[in-house]
Amino acid sequence: MTDDEKKPRGPSGPLRVTAGALAGAVAGFASLALAELVSAAVRPQAGPVVVVGGAAIDRTPAAVKDWAVRNFGTDDKLVLRLGILAVLTLFAFALGIAALRFRRAGAAGVVLFGVVGALAAIGRPDSRGLSDTLPSLVGAGAGAAVLLFLAGRLAWREPGAAEEPGSGKDPGSGKDPGSGKDPGSGKDPGSGEGSGPGSGDDWDRRGFVIAATAAAVASAGAGALGRSLNGASGRDAVVSRDRLVLPAPGSPADAVPRGAGLRIPGVSPFITPSASFYRVDTALVVPKVDATTWRLRVHGKGVSRPVVLSFDDLLRRDLVERDITLTCVSNEVGGPYVGTARWTGARLADLLAECGVRPPSRGGPADQLVARSVDGMTIGSPVEDVMDGRDALLAVGMNGEPLPFDHGFPVRMVVPGLYGFVSACKWITDIELTTFDAYDPYWVKRGWARKAPVKTQSRIDTPKPFARPGAGPVMVAGVAWAQHRGIDKVEVRVDDGPWQEARLAAEDSRDTWRQWSFPWRATKGGHTLTVRATDRSGRVQTERRTRTVPDGASGWHSVVVTVE
Question: N or C terminus of the chain with fewer C-beta within 10 Å?
Answer without folding.
Answer: N
